[in-house]
Records
---
Amino acid sequence: RKEVEQDPGPFNVPEGATVAFNCTYSNSASQSFFWYRQDCRKEPKLLMSVYSSGNEDGRFTAQLNRASQYISLLIRDSKLSDSATYLCVVRTGGFKTIFGAGTRLFVKA
Amino acid sequence: NAGVTQTPKFRILKIGQSMTLQCTQDMNHNYMYWYRQDPGMGLKLIYYSVGAGITDKGEVPNGYNVSRSTTEDFPLRLELAAPSQTSVYFCASRTGGDAEAFFGQGTRLTVV
């Protein structure tokens, strides 16, 4: 079983749609969780951290469910510029950082 | 603001050749990482370091070596290049705690 698993997609949605991505992780000792965004042929960049109480940043909402070992990302009112690959990231033991394979999102006009 | 700098950006190697991918950060970060990303795939951890003089294997260390003689530098060495090592290599660094990782722009390596 992979340490971090994501639905690879692709998700094809129209502008203005709401889309949700899920990610599961296998190590119950995992401590920190993040969503990164990666544009085509570019390096990954932090989108947002994920906190136990859930957190929101504009149109983006992240949630963590430790009991079920999954995290989610919700994007509301999708924009064309949201088209990218979204990477689920899990950090274990304070330093070992594992990336999921990513979920591709295409937002169409 | 330099951040994380990787060199070279592109390289073509012949099977059996060796090379070193350079990674330097100027943020005084203790943690540094090397990942590889195959086409259409996610990042796989090759090696990581929690400070100068300390390195450890990640998910896919075979065929690679690293060293961390200074806080700033974390080079990745390929001794006998194989076609399976054709990939994009990303170096990243961060401070401790829940800090985000900052990535270099990547090195695109092709082994023929």
---
Amino acid sequence: SQQGEEDPQALSIQEGENATMNCSYKTSINNLQWYRQNSGRGLVHLILIRSNEREKHSGRLRVTLDTSKKSSSLLITASRAADTASYFCASSLYNNYGQNFVFGPGTRLSVLP
Amino acid sequence: DSGVTQTPKHLITATGQRVTLRCSPRSGDLSVYWYQQSLDQGLQFLIQYYNGEERAKGNILERFSAQQFPDLHSELNLSSLELGDSALYFCASSPQDRIYNEQFFGPGTRLTVL
């Protein structure tokens, strides 16, 4: 399977703490994206990091990418109860043979007030 | 609100039946993507259309088909339904044809096959 893996599967923290989620993928990629999903609802794009980038910030989000290890991490700083959701990484590959978009299994984050 | 609409929100049907899910992309977006989300398979990319033409294919079963119409809305047809087809079906849209661009997701259609 081309599907990557995320860990942990579930994470429970207190409000104000930082949350770190990791993602691994199996093929070379063009970029990697992180999405958030509130229970049973559509996904919301959070951040995109290109294969030639190593780190990217957006507000309280920090994403790193290590292409040599085929892994990425998402850090949410100063977490809030509203951050409670599932977080998915998605790796995309586009070449002369076509394109594909593979989601990881997701990390379910619970931020306790 | 992403601007992507999907109908219906919920669909309950029986095994062996055929259903059609509908998606309207954001205004100006030419690409439409379809995804299936189930507990055992996770979130899987099914197929992408760009300006009416199929552009990429993922783990889409032969019993499933899709099309994109001249007004850019898209339909996903699921036939000979099985219990295992019960899932959330999302569509997403983006302006360009490259799958690696940011996608905007609709609220999903929850399909239950009894």
